[in-house]
Amino acid sequence: MQNIISLLKQYYYVFLQGLWGTLWISGVVVFFGTILGLVIAIMRMSRFKPLKVFTDVYIEILRGTPVLLQLYFFWIALPKFLPIELSDTACIVVALIVNASAYIAEIIRAGIGAVDIGQWEAAKSIGLSNAHTMTHVILPQAVKNILPALCNEFISTIKGTSLASVFFVGELTTSYKTIQTATFLSLEPLIISGAIYFVLNFVLSRMLKLLERRLMVSD
Amino acid sequence: MTDEILRTENLHKSFGKLEVLKGISTSIRKGEVVSIIGPSGGGKSTFLRCLNLLEIPTAGSVYFKGQDITDKKLKIAEYRRQIGMVFQTFNVFPNMTVLENITLAPTLEKKVPKAEAQEEAMSLLRRVGLEEKASEYPRKLSGGQKQRLAIVRALAMHPEVMLFDEPTSALDPEMVKEVLDVIGELTRSGMTILIVTHEMGFAREVSDRVLFISDGVITEEGRPEQIFTSPRHPSTNKFLSMVL
Fold first, then answer.
1. What sign does the CA torsion over B65, B70, B74, B78 have?
2. Alpha-carbon separation of residue B190 from B98, B104, B183 (angstroms)
3. Distance from CA of B107 to the nearest CA of A (A)
């Protein structure tokens, strides 16, 4: 316990830096992962066969291989095939976005599928365009269905960012490694990092619970 | 015929191997009230749904004011704005208030200013006795109120034709009348109306013409008094003797 307190006193800024890294990487991954996931979900529901096949393959591959392997893949492949210079951080963030998008796409697709078919028909019958049907009628109802599952996915995304430490990308688990190397203390920095992750996810899940309750107003 | 508004020619619809519509040809005049009756599974609803392309006909054509709406180049959403539809299961939007349900399509698709759309929505709600529910969410409405909402939601787009697909079949008996009253009033306003219904008394009272659809074809059609009192076709006779 004493070790933990003295560690915090001495290295709090390293943890803070790590926390900041975890926060922004998670934020970016959740944000772009959700947008990409939505696009993939909508493509997957398309009547145009090739699009559906492409997204099926995309999702199956990303779900069927380990995240760490995917990170290595992007870390090696992106700099090789892209003409622009990419930092390790950028490669890892892209990989995490792509990985998250596959899971989020499946969640969104299921949520959209759970909206009663009558809602589509009613929206069409009053002459709403496909885009407006989606944005005003279907998605608002789907969001309610998928919020719990999406919340789980966001939390596992945040935890997943810890894998970036393998590439020494600045985030919380990398902070742990840094401090461990500097102090030869293992358990104490691990406990501190763990506590920070826990609080972060706990707060997030409470916030989403609140949002969920507010959205339930219309049910 | 100059006052024709809808016409179908040899309309076919199959779902996989199941042929539901086997060639329906009919013409609807502007302002006409047409009831569609017949046994379940006979194709009544499918026929109605082909008219606003919720089902795409497998073969045959639908003409709206002389224009073939099965033409691939037609903008379906624009066409549908001229055809209102009311469903058996109401399908009001649960994520919006009563008022928003009505103003949604006019403001989004016709660019009606919000205040104007709300004003009109309120007057529609008054017409069906729901003005006090304007800011409620649909979950607080009874079935009959939801269906009246669904009707004015369709009317807010100023459709030229209204399609009713068994509008009272999902209602508790005590609520059937309030919905039929609204539809009845509409039939007297000069609106062109097609209604699939099992309410034979109502069909007889409001219709100009009754179509009896069974086995995917119009087996018999005529004035309500003729159909209900002296049906010519044996299957019409059999059906009516079971339901009346």
1. positive
2. 26, 25, 12
3. 10
What is the full per-residue pLDDT of chain B (244 aa) written as tens digits? Answer: 569 999 999 999 999 999 999 999 999 999 999 999 999 999 999 999 999 999 999 999 999 999 999 888 889 999 999 999 999 999 999 999 999 999 999 999 999 999 999 999 999 999 999 999 999 999 999 999 999 999 999 999 999 999 999 999 999 999 999 999 999 999 999 999 999 999 999 999 999 999 999 999 999 999 999 999 999 999 999 999 988 7
Length of chain A: 219
CB contact under 8 A, B154 and A136: no
Residue type, B106: P
Residue of B nearest to A144 (CA): B95
A218 interfaces chain B, CB cutoff of 8 Å? yes
- In angstroms, what CA-CA distances link B178 with B6, B48, B138? 29, 23, 17
Residue B242 tokens read as 């079971």
* Chain B hits for A144, Cβ within 8 Å: 95
A60 CB within 8 Å of a chain B CB: no
- Best CA proximity match to B52, nearest among B74, B31, B30: B74
Question: For chain A, which residues make up each domain, given as ranges?
Answer: 2-218
Distance CA B192, CA B29 (A): 8
Which among A194, A196, A165 is positioned nearest to A181, based on CA atoms?
A165
Contact B91 A137 (CB under 8 A): no
Q: How many other C-beta atoms are found inside a 10 Å radius of the C-beta of residue A184?
A: 7
ipTM: 0.92
Architecture per CATH, domain A2-218, reads as Orthogonal Bundle (1.10)
Distance from CA of B228 to the nearest CA of A (A): 32
Q: For chain B, what's the residue count?
A: 244
Contacts for B53 with CB less than 8 Å, ≥ 6 apart: B62, B69, B70, B76, B79, B80
**Cα B130 from Cα B62, distance rounded (Å):** 35
For residues A80 and A66, give the distance between their C-alpha atoms in angstroms, rounded to a whole number.
21
CA of B78 to nearest chain A CA: how many angstroms apart? 6
Sign of CA dihedral A167, A172, A175, A179: negative
Kindly list the distances between the CA atom of residue A98 and the CA atoms of A28, A31, A92, B222, in Å, as whole numbers in the listed order: 12, 12, 10, 63
Of the candidates B87, B94, B104, the beta carbon closest to that of A218 is on B94
Helical pair A67-81 and A88-113, crossing angle rounded to 10 deg: 120
